[in-house]
Specification:
The structure holds 2 protein chains of 2 kinds. By secondary structure, chain A is α/β, with parallel strands linked by helices. Chain A is built from 26 helices and 31 strands. A 5-stranded mixed β-sheet of chain B has the order 2-1-3-4-5, with helices on one face. Classes of the chains: A alpha/beta, B alpha/beta. Chains A and B meet through β9 of A and α5 of B.
């Protein structure tokens, strides 16, 4: 016990420091090289004694696929070892030299057309464009010679020739690459006396504002659109000084990733339309947080000014070196006088994981007191060492979906800011918290325990779901679930509801079978990863489900379970694709959770997986793609209702932000409490409204679809009289006389540790350890009804996005009808 | 102070002599973006004609089947010949379909090359070379004569739809400067010709236009009767004898 605490202290501060990982950035020439096996090679390169050692730029690290391929180059006389195939620019980054650039972007193909990255290379007659030049052994690169400087100054003068002098009215001002680099290489006056050219602005839709006169033709947006977003709409039109970026025929950018062109544009040509003229970037406070609009949990930065969220940006989120983390973690333990390997023999891992994995519903009932505490704590402290075997976290690279980026205006509209009670006339009346809680507690005590039902919403954090479950259990009911998981979720085996391959691991796949899922609308970032894999490995994609559009080549195999049965029985031509694949991946959509025959379908999918050798010791390709941010944590915490038709007999319903629930079957006299942040669907039926804070206003734990727990941080204050979800339930429990034994976030988290310790391992992905083989036999019959699409409108899926004006505009203009 | 005044004055003088602003010097016949019009919009059907479908196959056979996009330029050219000298957006879409790329990739190529016309041109599209050697030899006057005779502006089609005048960069006939090119789209891709008329004068181009209007054939090449091809006027003055064979070792002597 004491050991566990000590160990937790040793690991916690390290785990929660997300800033250290932000500084780490890998440079690899091939995507498949992004494996966690690497050490900072720049550190290996021993600098000559007379030169001060340099640190690689932005934490750039190199990974050698095989050590023989290492070559040595000299950057400003400083020797660096890099793998073959790296460009001169990457070599300079490893050596700690920042090369100015406009067109080069590490995640896009190399264009080499801005010429800003010119460097001098010894024995080369002219300066070379470093971004496109492969580094050769023994190359002597000079980055700060008069030749290189003069070349860059010349390029800058040409770039500024036709660039308007409108920085004071440009939204990019302050975060503009051209502005920054012209400070270093620009002249204080121009020699250009002719007329500047002007370009007609393009209409790319309600999200991206264009001022095409500012464009410097770096073609980053063209490459992003065709390579990452998969929409072949943008192109470079015309030539010479008449060259411009455009779509030729008037066309909106109908990609779910279109907002990212705002980030990659080095100048102010493409800026955010909703954010236009709202704020300057230096006025904004950035808070690193997590997106909750889908189950991917994209890492975002919430930029706020005062009480208002001004914009949301992606934050760089790269694969981590877990080995390094392991070393660091064990270093810390050794410093504390502990040797982790001596205490916890490797053989004990599976045993510990077994108990944690099963996470039997009984475990959730256990209170953190009494004789069971020792039992739980023992495994809790074992579980502290699980992160060292956890795989790397790499969720959204540096892109986010448009829904993530532009839903923020929904946070300001339709908010609930006072506790309210519905009067006899059917109208809501604002009351004090004391009165509202008293009424809720009174009604809760009047009904029978089994008539109490609690439903967590899509956006609920793990803390509040834990509190709600504890509260309902104390009231004697266990009818609690999270919307979207269906009425009979299968929470016993973690591998049955998370993405076992991990989002990053999808890049190794060569065959995908998508079952009842449309990743493009359900999880745009996962879709981007699949697209990347399809492009890089020529992976084959088969899809079973309703007609939908993909932005990569996809074979539509069928619409319903019958096709699955055909594949399982080996009657379908796609079987050979799966069985011939090296790393096959099956992704099952969480939309199937709502089907009556989901167990039967899952067993069919498992049969396919077994026959296709999808789950092996070294590869787990059987995945579930969840829909909502709360789902994974809800299932980890065991939010499983006792009876599947509890809603028909409910008398007291506690909706914690649950809006997409069908309440038609609810008895007329049932008392409904709605706790949430938006006046959305759930409010129509509510008797009492308890205002809660949104994800941007609270500290909460969310687990994403691949099983990685991450935390949001409060960026702005809450609206009106709203409170954090778990605090409301904690207060209610006190009023109801069943006081919950925690009153801090730390307290509730230590309670969570007893139920689902992985939720506390922030920013680490904990893989499921037990396979599907342990599942009991399924007796259900498959219903041949075709699969339905889980998300009708990509832009409006939850209460925040439904309240957003920008999302409404997007669904009106950008959706394919 | 005086220096500043002087430089200000200088700037004013320069402003006066400055050419009228030209948005961007482009030889293309159209803007870099498409505006829907009744005769040019993506909804119009467009297909290669039966005869040209064979040509399309022939062109595609020059390239590996996985690099069909290499055929974009010859196919655009064929489409332009078929469509009377210009490429509506639906023709570009048809080409994109044939080579299996996104339409924007075809638009990029079509906007890059000024010889692809994206607005209507006359049945005889007259292109005046405007590059330095021709300009020195009077191509400006030739263009003026053409425009004045036809009563149109540059890149404008005459009312009868027969003629349009454009400018072009060097076509390599500098020795016979000034020159014009006549792209004849009057008979589709079968009767398509692209002939150079060299050593033209303002009077001669008007005659050429009238002959084209009457449908007469006229020999392409130099229009100066005293010259043979690119030889000097009035016959050669040098190289009069048979050229000597190249100096060679007398192998028989060895």
């Amino acid at each position: 016990m004491g050991l566990g605490l000590l160990a937790s202290r040793a690991i916690r501060p390290f785990n929660s420091s997300s800033s250290s990982r932000l500084l780490l950035r890998t440079i690899v020439s091939k995507p498949e090289l992004q494996s966690p096996e690497s050490s900072a090679a720049a550190a290996d390169a021993c600098p000559e004694p007379d030169l001060p050692p340099r640190t690689p730029l932005a934490g750039a690290r190199v990974h050698f696929p095989n050590p023989e391929d290492a070559i040595e180059v000299f950057v400003d006389g400083y020797p660096v070892k890099i793998p073959k195939g790296m460009t001169v620019l990457q070599a300079c980054e490893v050596a700690g030299v920042d090369i100015p650039r406009f067109c080069y972007h590490s995640r896009l193909s190399i264009a080499g057309n801005c010429r800003m990255c010119l460097v001098e290379v010894e024995k080369s007659p002219k300066p070379v464009a470093s971004c496109a030049m492969p580094a050769l052994p023994g190359m002597k690169i000079k980055t700060d010679t008069p030749v290189a400087k003069k070349a860059r100054e010349g390029v800058m003068e040409f770039l500024l020739m036709n660039h308007p002098l409108d920085c004071p009215i440009c939204d990019q001002g302050g975060e503009c690459d051209l502005q920054d680099q012209s400070m270093a290489f620009g002249s204080d006056r121009g020699r250009f006396t002719e007329m500047k050219r002007s370009v007609v602005d393009k209409n790319l839709g309600p999200l991206v504002k264009t001022v095409m006169t500012r464009c410097i033709q770096c073609t980053r947006c063209v490459r992003f659109a065709s390579e990452v977003a998969g929409v072949q709409d943008l192109g470079m039109l015309g030539r010479g000084s008449g060259e411009e970026i455009g779509t030729y025929v008037e066309k909106l950018m109908t990609s779910e990733l279109s907002g990212n062109v705002i980030d990659i544009c080095p100048v102010g040509a493409l800026t955010s339309k909703p954010f236009a003229f709202k704020a300057r970037n230096w006025e904004l406070k950035g808070t690193e947080s997590i997106d909750v609009t889908d189950a991917v949990g994209s890492n975002i930065r919430i930029d706020s000014r005062g009480p208002e969220v001004m914009r949301i940006l992606p934050r760089l989120n790269e694969s981590l070196c877990t080995n390094q983390e392991f070393n660091k973690a064990s270093d810390r333990l050794i410093k504390l006088g502990l040797r982790p390997n001596n205490i916890f023999l490797p053989e004990t891992y599976p045993t510990a994981l077994f108990y944690l994995e099963l996470r039997l519903p009984a475990l959730a009932f256990l209170e953190p007191s009494g004789p069971s505490i020792l039992f739980i704590s023992f495994f809790t402290c074992l579980s502290l060492f699980i992160p060292v075997i956890a795989t790397s976290v790499d969720i959204n690279e540096e892109w986010i979906s448009d829904k993530t980026r532009f839903c923020y205006d929904g946070l300001k509209r339709q908010r609930l800011n006072d506790p309210m009670i519905r009067g006899a006339d059917g109208r809501f009346k604002a009351v004090s918290w004391r009165d509202a809680l008293a009424i809720v507690a009174e009604v809760a005590h009047q009904v029978k325990p089994e008539e109490i039902v609690g439903i967590a919403g899509k956006l609920s954090d793990a803390e509040s779901m834990m509190a709600l479950k504890d509260f309902l259990n104390k009231m004697g009911s266990n009818n609690i679930w999270c919307e979207g998981t269906g009425t009979q979720p299968n929470a016993d085996l973690r591998s049955g509801y998370i993405m076992n391959t991990s989002i990053n691991g999808l890049e190794k796949a060569d065959v995908f079978l998508l079952v009842g899922t449309q990743p493009r609308v359900e999880a745009a970032m996962v879709n981007a990863r699949i697209r990347k894999t399809v492009r890089a490995n020529n992976a084959k994609v088969g899809y079973v489900g309703p007609e939908t559009d993909f932005n990569y080549d996809c074979q539509h195999l069928g619409t319903g379970p019958n096709t699955l049965l055909e594949i399982a029985e080996g009657r379908h031509p796609f079987v050979s694709a799966i069985s011939n694949a090296k790393n096959p991946v099956i992704i099952v959509g969480a939309g199937l959770f709502e089907r009556e025959d989901k167990d039967a379908i899952f067993s069919v999918v498992e049969t396919i997986a077994k026959k296709g050798n999808v789950v092996r010791p070294d590869w787990n390709g059987l995945n579930v793609l969840l829909l909502n941010a709360a789902q994974a944590a809800a299932l980890d915490l065991g939010l499983v209702p006792e009876s599947s038709n509890s809603i028909e007999s409910a008398k007291f319903v506690y909706l914690m932000g649950a809006d997409d629930l069908n309440l038609d079957k609810l008895p007329k006299d049932a008392f409904v409490v709605y706790q949430g942040h938006h006046g959305d669907h759930g409010v129509y039926r509510a008797n009492v409204i308890l205002p809660a804070s949104a994800f941007s206003e609270k500290e909460g734990t969310y687990e994403n679809t691949e099983g990685c727990s991450q935390q949001t941080l409060p960026a702005v204050p809450t609206v009106g009289d709203a409170r954090d979800d778990w605090k409301i339930i904690r207060a209610l429990s006190e009023v109801a006389g069943v006081r919950l034994p925690y009153d801090t976030v730390g307290g509730i988290r230590s309670r969570m540790r007893t139920v689902a310790p992985n939720l506390l391992h922030v920013d680490e992905r904990e893989p499921a350890t037990l396979g599907h083989s342990l599942k009991p036999e399924v007796t259900q019959k498959v219903n041949p009804a075709p699969f339905k699409s889980a998300v009708e409108n990509f832009y409006m899926t939850d209460s925040i996005t439904r309240a957003s004006k920008i999302m409404a505009q997007c669904s009106a203009t950008l959706r394919k009808k | 102070m005086l220096a500043r005044l002087a430089s200000k004055r200088l700037l004013e003088i320069r402003q006066v002599f400055r050419q009228p602003p030209q948005a961007s010097r482009s030889f293309s016949t159209a803007l870099n973006y498409h505006i829907d019009s009744p005769d040019n919009n993506p909804d119009l059907p467009w297909e290669f004609s039966e005869g040209n479908k064979h040509k399309v196959k022939e062109i595609l056979s020059h390239y590996p089947s996985n690099y069909k996009q290499s055929a974009v330029i010859p196919l655009l050219d064929l489409a332009q010949q078929q469509h009377g000298g210009w490429l509506p957006v639906s023709a570009m879409n048809a080409v994109a379909k044939v080579i299996e790329v996104a339409p924007i990739r075809v638009y990029e190529v079509a906007t890059f090359y000024s010889m692809f016309n994206r607005t209507k041109v006359g049945k005889y599209h007259l292109l005046v070379c405007g590059t330095t050697p021709c300009m020195i030899r009077g191509s400006r006057e030739i263009e003026d004569a053409l425009l004045k005779h036809l009563g149109v502006k540059r890149n404008e089609v005459t009312k009868d739809g027969l003629f349009s005048v454009g400018e072009m960069e060097c076509m390599g006939s500098c020795v016979n400067a000034p020159m014009i090119t006549v792209a004849d789209y009057s008979n589709g891709s079968e009767g398509y010709s692209y002939n150079y008329y060299e050593d033209v004068t303002p009077e001669r181009v008007v005659e050429i236009v009238e002959m084209l209007r009457r449908g007469e054939k006229l020999p392409p090449g130099t229009q100066n009767p005293k010259r043979i091809m690119s030889g000097p006027e009035g016959g050669n003055t040098t190289l009069l004898s048979e050229p000597k064979p190249p100096p060679c070792r007398d192998l028989d002597a060895c």
